[in-house]
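Retro notes, item 3 of 5
We never archived the inputs for the magnesium ion complex last cycle. Fixing that now. Sequence and ligand:
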Amino acid sequence: MTPLLEVANLNIFFPQASGESTVPVDDVSFTVAAGELVALVGESGCGKTLTGLALPRLLPRGAEMGARTVIRFRGTDLTSLSESELRTYRGRRIAMVFQDPMTSLNPVMRVGAQIAEAIHAHRKVSKRDARERVLALLTEVGIADPTSRIDAYPHQLSGGMRQRILIAMALAAEPDLLVADEPTTALDVTIQAQILELLDHLRATRKLAVLLITHDLGIVAGRADRVLVMYAGRIVESAKTARLFSHPAHPYTRGLFASIPRLDADTTRLTPIGGSVPRPADWPTGCRFHPRCGAAIAHCTTHRPPLEAAGPDQLAACWVTQGMTK
Ligand SMILES: Nc1ncnc2c1ncn2[C@@H]1O[C@H](COP(=O)(O)OP(=O)(O)O)[C@@H](O)[C@H]1O
Ligand SMILES: [Mg+2]
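Structure as it came back at the time:
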């Protein structure tokens, strides 16, 4: 089966005045199947947001993509499309939801009207049909009492409800893939769980594929099918979620587990990662994690580890995991 989305050798760089470039996303490859929930996890500054933005080619000004980059969506390479051809994909087949619902919503427009606008942007419908559609979407995203909430302004709703409104707007175009970038980071824990449950529900009922971007490995358990762990612009580990949780292979992944507050007996013995993610201009040679890694050997400082099999359906880019001892 061909995957819904196939990303190969994704390179995102910012040319600098000096003539050199920073490369915040470096040779990233992954796939997402229809109806699959894939989590992209890593600390802040690792390149997750840029990766998500690259999919519908919404990169910030000044960013460029490498010539070898392939972003194949339902068999079409989006890197070769013109701006007008891309409109079929942006917000339509690939929809996005971001962290802060307040900045993505228009504060002076009723939420129902904003969802209706999203519907009208993608297809011709009468005003009455659009309203029916809005009510159906509000119900689908779990907004209680949609007939009264449809006329609310964003500030009259809770943070969780505003995030549901954004998800309804994203669904208005009937996308195949939803890129959700830290969709629950601004919300408290109970509401977080409800929004994640909603994404999982949409995946099941709509066969919607979801790329869930998060710095919090703790929220993906039991929800994501697969996890991609990103460090300093590269995928350092990928595995089915259960496997990643039972046998994390990369020292960075193990460090992320140790940083999760809710600990089980096994992970309490791990130490959280010291230091922080360097800026792209200062990325270390070899394995970029080596300065923060307790297991690093001399080889790690000079040679980039390839992603190699570390277990069933599991890849990790670590010389030590791959058996090198000095
Ligand atoms: N417009 C930009 N210009 C220059 N550097 C950028 C720009 N946007 C992001 N970056 C850099 O790229 C790196 C990755 O950013 P981002 O994708 O936002 O990471 P994450 O979402 O994992 O926190 C960061 O170091 C950030 O400073
Ligand atoms: Mg981000």
